[in-house]
Amino acid sequence: MGSQVANIDFPIRVSDSRQLNPPAENLHLYWRSQEEEGYLERYWPNEHDHDAWIDSIRAILVRQFPDFADAEIQYFAKGTFNRLYSLTHPSWKKAYIFRVSIPVEPFFKTESEIATMEYVRRHTTMPIPRVIAFSSSDNNELGYEWILMDMMPGEPLRKLWDGMPDAARVKVFAELAAHTKQLVALRFSKFGSLYFADVADRVLPRQISPMNKPSNGTHALSNGTDVIDKDIGPGGRFVLGRIVAQDFFFDKRVYYPGSRGPFDTTRELVDMRMELLGKRIRNLSPVEGDAWYCENDRELERNKDRVYELFDQLKALVPRLVPHDNGPEDVGILWHDDLSEHNLLLDPVTFKLTAVVDWECVGIIPAYETQDARPAWLSDRDWRPTPLVQLARGIPPNHDFIAADKLRRVGEMGPARREYHRIVGPVYDATSPETQQRAKNKQGIAKQLEIATFQHRPWWTADWLADNNFNGDKTVHAFDTNNVDMGGVTMNGVDMNGVDMNGVA
Q1: What value does the mean pLDDT take over residues 184-201?
Q2: The organism sits in which domain of life (predicted)?
């Protein structure tokens, strides 16, 4: 490839950033009821003609980069939000990826992802793709937003893990820890997402201007610490703006009014998450065939009296567990919460870390929510209790499997976990018992507000409330689900007495 692309040091936006369009009314076409668990998932509404798409991709690229006229363009892969195409040529020294995204959070998701990647590239040594050009508008031949970036070498960790020696497993997470330590050392004064400064008027509240920030970029938090927002403020290339996160745009949430930040305090962030959850569980689509229908909504509707009662109990806890003032545990950290087996690429021979990919929805969150900056692959976060829809189908709870698999992973992941945390160190000062208790309380609330918790597993929130005596007693009230006794001793013949679901994550 000629110097046209090789010498580009800052992403080129080829779309008009001034055009402001509200989310389209047809966004429901990109969500459907997930067959296995019955909740809404993102999907491409139809199969596309790859040959036609390749012609459109070539037409888009050659307007900016004529060298791509002779590129070999092939379908490469499909992700949750994206379709990827590879661009190669025998005379090029490197290959490229062209990624097309469905519109779940139009404009903001693409803009934030590109700015975040560039920010990380400039402030850490973490190996991430270089973005060459992008469009945060669907006003093009494809009708979708897109990104052109370097193709990174390596294979996903998931393909290599089983064949890796224990020493190699520890070594790769020690390597990741060195990069992560740089990432979490960056400190921010608000919670939200990063954007390039030239779109500040679209991503900041109208009453806030980048010029209102202190000129030295230093902000004193209520806990007495100073936070440096590097490259943010007057003259900086970035702004800290509205948050792009699934609990703010997942399914119908993208339409709901309310603040998207940036948020000054954890309490503001939690209150808004709670408000959006409340709107969502009262805006159900339980009728099959309707837009946004999913089985989960049908079961929430069937049990809505108990669901609303639980939500009110959860909401009433916030003033008790989340103070208005930030503490040490609330320092803002830029955190990639999906450092998983899919997004960590390794050299298949040396097992050296070659890339960290998928920076969608990466934002600045309170430090306690990072769970000590633990990567997803080293955690147990993906193991969750059986969702409400499966219980209604008569499927027994999976707590025995989760408990057994957690024990297995302790042995498998233990050495890598210990080395990772030794290198990263604490992400905030948790020496005070009061700080530890506040962090535990806030982590509990945060877990309930995740999409995959209350909205899909409200009975798990009932257990959490009871186990922590937050509802004044230890009684878990019944859900009226088919063949499932949620409040008694048995569930489809499975003894539920003494089962502690609070510890299952």
Answers
A1: 96
A2: Eukaryota
